[in-house]
Amino acid sequence: MFEGPVQRLIDELARLPGIGQKSAQRLAFHLLLVEEADARRLAAAIGDMRDQISLCERCFNVAAADECSICLDGRRDQSMVCVVERPQDIIVVERTQEYRGRYHVLGGALSPINGIGPGQLRFEELKSRLEPEGIAELIVATNPTIEGDATAMYMAREFKPLGVRVSRLASGLPVGGDLDYADELTIGRALIGRTEL
Amino acid sequence: MRVDWLSLSQFRSYQSLEWAPDPGVNVLVGRNATGKTNVLEAIGYLAGLKSFRSVPDSELIADDAGAAVIRAAVSGEDRERLIEIQLNRSGPRQVQVDKNRLRRSTEMLGVLRVVAFLSDDLDLVKRGPSYRRDLLDEIAVQFWPAAHLDQAEFERSLRQRNAFLKSGDRDQTTLSVWDSRLAQAGGRVLARRAKATGLLAPLLAVAYGEISSDGLEAALGYRATWGDGTLGNRTAGDYADDLAQALEASRQADLDRRLTTVGPHRDEPGFRLNHSEARTHASQGEQRSIALAVKIASHRAIGDLYGESPILLLDDVFSELDAGRSEALAASLPEDTQTIITSARPEDVPLTGLQWTVGDGISR
Fold first, then answer.
1. CB distance B169–A111 less than 8 Å?
2. Type and span of the H or E element at B148
3. Percent of chain A with pLDDT over 70
4. Interface contact A162, partner B, CB < 8 A
5. Is residue B109 pLDDT above 90, yes or no?
6. B147, B249, B158, B153: which is closest to B199 by C-alpha?
């Protein structure tokens, strides 16, 4: 055990994902030894983020105002919504520059093991967006895991009857890669989802 | 396929061990608890990246040590490879093949193929159906490496569906989603089991005939908990359709019992001897012969498929057999196969091969 305040910081840091006791200790002592201003700036950045950022009222992306910058952007195609598990996933799709619609963050994927059913995900919020925004297509971009696939399947069953197109991101071979470097599951999926030439 | 040399450090009872086995038959002789089986276990670990005694890695590390190391040069398919494994008491293990770190354990499949017969393999015949499901699934992975991904997906989907049933949630759409995930993965698992059964069954009958002179016919059957109760030999898609129907039919029962009551995880593969259930009707000697015959059959099936013979590990098998069966087993063992046999009493082993004495090390 270290002096109270040091140990408190170590304990807090160790609660962060990917940080163990050892790393937490190293970070804490680093923050103790750097210029005080540097340490205070980090503390302030954490505080500011919590004060100024909240979730978008429409799509649950991170937002600096009531709505996020994507929802506020009038040039976006409102009829198309890309559904993701977490706000981080939006950045991944955005970086492609290929998508000009809006988003919806579910907040996870169906996983009864972790107590996550439809009620824990933001399906109702998505349903209430359909009519006012004139949404015609949902592109489900959940992770290609068993849980992500189950979530996509659930959405197809719940939303298709409401008259919207529901599609799923294709899963397949990495572009520019060699066939023999892909694992069997990826190749198997790519075979199932093959496209006609 | 063969092990050219093996080196152990802080593995089980061995502080260090260097051994260069013969490419043919090796008989490891030593009193009980001298570490004969540990050598087989190390070779098994090289092939499957887990202990065939189903114990966690930490139990393989010598008592006072922080890490155990298994190294071996193995030859097969005209090339030699160096496998190095370090098991750590804290932290994950490291596996290297030819000095390249393995990213996934599936990359190890096929580098070294081993068929092992252990004294508790009698459980395959004697005990519940889960032993025989595991046997078919393990053989499927040897035949088709991707099978383990289907099995993992099936297990995960099953856990999810069971968790849903236990949660008390009754939402039909959610349940139907898990039904369909489970049916799809289950269909693929079943298609592999059907193929594995088809490959194994005829070889089993032949091997049993060789080991045992009782004239009885050994067979491998499969009783399904879904469809019409038979497995047959169909496509993964057909099995998935059958499973989906069965899951729907048992939906109320599953909701009541909060458990998935039908599917590949409840099926019952079984051995039969002249049409009666070997588990309940065969004698101890007959059961032992069936267990051995299954191993010999899988050894042949894998050898046929890959065009080279897997290493055969036999842990103390001859002491349990009568003289007639011992001789017959020795005669039916494959040639051109590196075979490693342990025995407390060399006079029990009716085979000519190199005899090694196991104590602190292994010596001629």
1. no
2. helix B147-167
3. 94
4. no
5. no
6. B147
Lowest-confidence pick of A16-25, B176-185, B354-363: B354-363
Write the ipTM: 0.75
Residue A177 has pLDDT above 70, yes or no: no
CATH H-level, domain A4-52: superfamily: RecR Domain 1 (1.10.8.420)
Q: Does domain A75-168 have CATH number 3.40.50.720?
A: no
Task: Give the chain B residue whose CA is nearest to the CA of A157.
Answer: B173
Q: Would the pLDDT of A180 be above 80?
A: no
Residue contact A154–B173, C-beta within 8 A: yes
Q: What is the pLDDT of residue A181?
A: 65
Question: Domain ranges in chain A?
Answer: 4-52, 75-168
Query: Can you read off the two tokens belonging to residue B165?
Result: 């049933």
Cα separation, B303 vs B220, in Å, equals: 20
Distance CA B243, CA A124 (A): 31
CB contact under 8 A, A158 and B173: yes
pLDDT for B357: 87
Q: Are strands A62-63 and A54-55 parallel, antiparallel or unpaired?
A: antiparallel
The shortest CB-CB distance from B174 to any of A117, A146, A147 is to: A117
In whole angstroms, what is the distance from residue B160 CA to residue A115 CA?
A: 10
At residue A71, the pLDDT reads 92
Residue B338: CB atoms within 10 A of its CB come to 23
> pLDDT exceeding 90 applies to what percent of chain B?
57
Q: Which residue of A has its CA nearest to B104?
A: A183
Short-list B47, B52, B91, B48, CA closest to B68: B91
Question: Under DSSP, is residue A79 helix (H, G, I), strand (E, B) or coil?
Answer: strand
Question: A184 vs B171: CB contact, 8 Å cut-off?
Answer: no
Phi, psi dihedrals of residue B75, rounded to the nearest 5°: -120, 145
Q: pTM of this prediction?
A: 0.83
